[in-house]
Design goal:
The protein is an alpha/beta fold. It contains six helices and six strands. The radius of gyration is 15 Å and the shape is globular.
Length: about 140
């Protein structure tokens, strides 16, 4: 977690950040539940400011206590068809089902979005892997 990026995000948006993660050309920020509107800003203005300052794409996720809701939030605005949790070798795994047309939006450029989603799910809900299935 990089305090410099968290401070920048909070000062520009007014949203409180729980976590920040950088992955290749993408930053992921977890904001407190209820702070998503502040983070985005009117017409996406706040996100745009942060994106311009960091010179990278940004994913903002609203925190949720429940793992299922957290996984849904990780991939918003994509509407997931189904989320299942399995335990294998003592590790929790999430299987998400989505429409084939949403595959690219879930994966992100060069898989960067799902990489961040996996790391954040591990950090916040001890989910060791997210597997995507499309139909």
């Amino acid at each position: 977690m990089n305090i410099k990026y968290i401070n920048l995000f909070e000062s520009q948006t007014g949203a409180k950040v729980l976590d920040c993660l950088a992955e290749d050309e993408l930053f992921g920020f977890i904001v407190h539940e209820g702070d998503m509107g502040l983070a985005i800003g009117k017409g996406g203005k706040n996100i745009g400011k942060i994106k311009n300052k960091l010179k990278k794409n940004i994913v903002v996720v609203e925190y949720a206590d429940k793992p299922k809701k957290f996984i849904e939030n990780l991939f918003t605005p994509v509407k997931l068809k189904k989320i299942e949790f399995k335990e294998e070798d003592g590790k929790k795994k999430a299987i998400i089902m989505a429409a084939r047309k949403d595959r690219g939006r879930i994966l992100g450029p060069e898989g960067s979005k799902i990489k961040i989603a996996r790391k954040l799910a591990q950090r916040h809900h001890n989910i060791s892997h997210i597997q995507l299935q499309t139909s």
